[in-house]
Amino acid sequence: MIAVDNLHKHFGGFHAVDGASLEIGTGSITGLIGPNGAGKTTLFNVIAGRLQPTSGRVTMAGEDITGLAPHQLFHKGLLRTFQIAHEFGSMTVRENLMMVPAAQSGETLWNAWFRRGAVAAEERRLRDKADEVLEFLTISHLADQRAANISGGQKKLLELGRTMMVDAKIVFLDEVGAGVNRTLLNTIGDAIIRLNQERGYTFCVIEHDMDFIARLCNPVICMAEGKVLAQGTVDEVKNDERVIEAYLGTGLKNKVVGHA
């Protein structure tokens, strides 16, 4: 679904992404791992239109989407979440979901004044959709809570729920497990698997929790110093000498091997 070809993103003399090439297959849950500073989030930001690439190409289902703005990619079904959730804290959890779909009829003054019936009907449909999403994610009990008052893990579920309010085709998840307790992380993992298997979502997941990656992802891609270092199954990548060296460093790697 997504093909990245020789992508570069430079910040002055620093090459955050340095000639990365990779593919994210339709219907897959692809894991993206690597040490801190490997360029993973920068790669996400370039693909998702938050940063313009220095050079290289990104295609989605064969269409060149290089450099398109986030709102343009949103309409094509490419969405991303963030390591720190971006909820609207003063609104309820349900309202956070209801506001996601674009071009709602109530957004225009004319419709708000003269087509109140149509606006009300659309709001009822959105409310029903939001309640369906909350039930799917097992957080219906939070529907009327202010989003600012729910836990970090619940906010991650809310971000996942936002992708369900539109026709998402591929979702980029940036450290969905950061700051989340194990019980909620399992709930998030269950939801990702169900969305993938039951609704055909494609995912690409940045995550440092290798147990989470092993449970969800195939294939796994490892980045280091802005480049793609290795890809394959989670076991193949974990046992790759280049990956071990990138995470541990040559000296520590040899010390670990020497004491094995």
Automatic annotation (TrEMBL):
| Cited InterPro entries | AAA+_ATPase (IPR003593), ABC_AA/LPS_Transport (IPR051120), ABC_transporter-like_ATP-bd (IPR003439), ABC_transporter-like_CS (IPR017871), BCA_ABC_TP_C (IPR032823), P-loop_NTPase (IPR027417)
Going by the UniProt record, its keywords in alphabetical order are: ATP-binding, Nucleotide-binding, Transport
* One annotated GO molecular function: ATP hydrolysis activity
Gene3D superfamilies xrefs? P-loop containing nucleotide triphosphate hydrolases (3.40.50.300)
Q: Which GO terms describe its cellular component?
A: plasma membrane
Q: Which SUPFAM superfamilies match?
A: P-loop containing nucleoside triphosphate hydrolases
A Pfam family that this protein carries is ABC_tran
Domain ABC transporter, by residue range, is 2-250
Q: What stretches pass through the bilayer?
A: none
The name of this protein is ABC transporter ATP-binding protein
